[in-house]
Amino acid sequence: MILRRLLHPLPVFALTLFILVLLDLQLRTRSDQNPFAPFAREPTASLSRTLAVNQHRDVVLENQKQKRQKWRGLKPQQSLKLTDIFIAVKTTGRFHKTRLALLLETWISRTKDHTYIFTDSPDEDISSEGFNVVVTDCSPEHSHQALSCKMAAEYHHFMASDKKWFCHVDDDNYLNPGALLSLLTAFPRDGDIYVGKPSLDRPMRAQELLEGNKTRDVRFWFATGGAGFCLSRKLAEKMAPWASGPRFEQTSAAIMLPDDCTVGFIVERRLGFSMVHSNMFHSHLENLLQISPSDIPKQVTLSYGWFENKMNSVELKGVFTKDEDPSRFRTVHCLLYPSTSWCHVALKNVLSWNQHGFQ
Ligand code: UDP
Ligand code: MN
């Protein structure tokens, strides 16, 4: 009787154990199937070659082991700091006192130490205030060659730095440092990441010049420079054969396209990595009115510009009128950093004007 009672739970226990082992096996197989799908690349070519030599089982097991080791190394970057990000701003002499001055007063004042301004003319007023100004030898033009020359300088200075990420913006971009840090922190450490927003809804088509005056059709996605984009150091290092020294301009000339397209071409066509498409980067090529005011603090970049005689900018109410702040960058800055001194001054002016108006 006692023996029977003892034996009765045994089959239940054995069954539970069996189910648990099965579940564990299933979970293991799932985790082998690519936990960071968008950022992963499989060694498919070498794997299929080896499989052909009929070592199927050993190869699969070895591959699974390698993958497990690979994913174990890819941890989110909890410890990433804002100062780990190299921020490159592209500008030109004639925009120093207008576009650039607005950025220096707003977001660059919060990221001064790790923001580098790439221009074509020296400016003692800006340098003497402690901003990092890099005066390139590039011509002050809007030509493909001049723009690629500045991008090559940005790449070169980043590679010589100890920063973990390279981010590029134009001088008509507002960059939200907090949103940028959140975005980049979510990527796996040591991932091969190229993130930004395409300006087209389809891949770019280009003609690549080959030897002997031949050409070939190429397609690739690229992040529009006017919305800003970022590259992880690991990926930037792999780009060197097509981006270091004079090579970036040579690659740009080979596809007859400007700097931002060249970055996309190198990453997607030369290296075979896919760009990560993000909706949090914005250029003035899109209708900025479509960003709802409550979403503005979450965006990584914003922009502004004239389109058909009207200002294309985000719509956000604040202490500055549209005449005082046509880009809305000051208004955005006061929303993100309300303790900024000139935000208080503006608020006081509005309050005293209201008081005066009521008397
Ligand atoms: N730019 C430049 N040289 C020029 C004109 C523009 O270096 O002669 C830079 C400018 O400072 C900006 C970027 O190129 O960072 C894009 O310029 P813009 O916004 O005027 O033109 P877009 O390409 O956005 O229409
Ligand atoms: Mn622009």
Briefly, what is this?
This protein has helices spanning 2-7, 9-32, 44-52, 56-73, 96-105, 124-127, 144-160, 177-185, 233-238, 240-243, 247-255, 259-270, 329-336, 341-358, and strands at residues 85-90, 115-119, 132-135, 165-170, 173-175, 194-196, 204-209, 215-220, 229-232, 276-277, 301-303, 305-307, 310-312. The protein is an alpha/beta fold and 359 residues long. A seven-stranded mixed sheet has the order 3-2-1-4-9-6-10. A two-stranded antiparallel sheet has the order 5-11.
Detailed description of the structure:
There is one protein chain. This protein has 359 residues and is α/β, with parallel strands linked by helices. It has a seven-stranded mixed β-sheet. It has a two-stranded antiparallel sheet with strand order 5-11. Manganese (II) ion binds next to loops.
SSE topology sketch:
Layout lengths: L1 H6 L1 H24 L11 H9 L3 H18 L11 E6 L5 H10 L9 E5 L4 H4 L4 E4 L8 H17 L4 E6 L2 E3 L1 H9 L8 E3 L7 E6 L5 E6 L8 E4 H6 L1 H4 L3 H9 L3 H12 L5 E2 L23 E3 L1 E3 L2 E3 L16 H8 L4 H18 L1
Parallel strand pairs: 1-2, 1-4, 2-3, 6-10
Antiparallel strand pairs: 4-9, 5-11, 6-9, 7-8, 12-13
Helix pairs in contact: 7-11, 11-12
Bound molecules: uridine-5'-diphosphate (UDP) and manganese (II) ion (MN).
